[in-house]
Amino acid sequence: MKSKILLSLTIAMGASSAFAAHHECGKVTIADMNWNSASLIANIDQFILEHGYGCDAELVPGDTMATGTSMIEKGQPDIAPELWSNALKDLLEKGVKEGRLKVAGKSLSDGGEEGFWVPSYLVEEHPEMATIEGVIKYAKEFPHPEDDSKHAFYGCPAGWNCQISAENLFRAMNLGDAGFDLIDPGSGAGLSGSIAKAYERKEGWFGYYWAPTAVLGKYEMVKVDFGSGVDKEEFTSCTTQEDCLSPKPTMYPPSLVQTVITSSLADKAPEAYEYLSKRAFTNATMNGLLAWMEDNQADGKYAAENFMFEHSDLWSDWVSADVKAKLNKALDNL
């Protein structure tokens, strides 16, 4: 009789341990940054961690510097889904070295992207326009909005960090000598609006832009090849510096965009950590998702639910078959 009781207790304890292990994720806080791609990823993570891994996942407001600092000093939030790491490189390295943080992986697999762009329909007509030499050759295809004697290059809005690099590269490639005028669009909306206007009229457009963005999801653009490759030393020491006297051509290096989590979360929820290490988006995919958000005036939560319904081909690769079944069941109940 005693042996039967002991056996029953052992089985019960084993089942209890298994249950506890399955629900060890517990409470998880996720930084919901104040730009669309980051908010979308945060909401996707919340849905998957909650319904697939049994986490009590909560979104909290965040931004790059404040979130990174808080994760190191206070251990909260647990997850920064889209952290532009170059902005706090030293701080992150310190957090990882001290064992407080872990880099789960890249949230944007090909990194944040910057460059000079032209519409694809121009490149289809003149393939040379995919290069800076071709842009200069066909400079007349880029009408100036106010001066018929000049050609238009749309730069980065005044006051933005990218204004410096765009202006330096404009000088490095002697675009002024080729008849181009560097136009300040006044704002991000002004810059995106100039692309939309050109596309609607099938006119030429040449200027600075970045990805992932809704604009590059809506309008097919081609990044112009400077023929220089990426010179990281030149980019860091001169291209991005206001006092750069003799800039040289260099393509923009991709910006490192990572998912960073606290070590405590990685330790208590290894399966969730494994999911976060696999979850990544290409810029092309994210551009399309952002365009959908803008067209449908969707917030991060609504866009995340749409993503889960419409893109199981993507998120299925990030999770196990068991977790996929749980997520599909949760979607059926929405």
TrEMBL record:
<dbReference type="GO" id="GO:0022857">
    <property type="term" value="F:transmembrane transporter activity"/>
</dbReference>
<dbReference type="InterPro" id="IPR007210">
    <property type="entry name" value="ABC_Gly_betaine_transp_sub-bd"/>
</dbReference>
<protein>
    <submittedName>
        <fullName>ABC-type glycine betaine transport, periplasmic subunit</fullName>
    </submittedName>
</protein>
<dbReference type="GO" id="GO:0043190">
    <property type="term" value="C:ATP-binding cassette (ABC) transporter complex"/>
</dbReference>
<feature type="signal peptide">
    <location>
        <begin position="1"/>
        <end position="20"/>
    </location>
</feature>
<keyword id="KW-0732">Signal</keyword>
<dbReference type="Pfam" id="PF04069">
    <property type="entry name" value="OpuAC"/>
</dbReference>
<feature type="domain" description="ABC-type glycine betaine transport system substrate-binding">
    <location>
        <begin position="27"/>
        <end position="308"/>
    </location>
</feature>
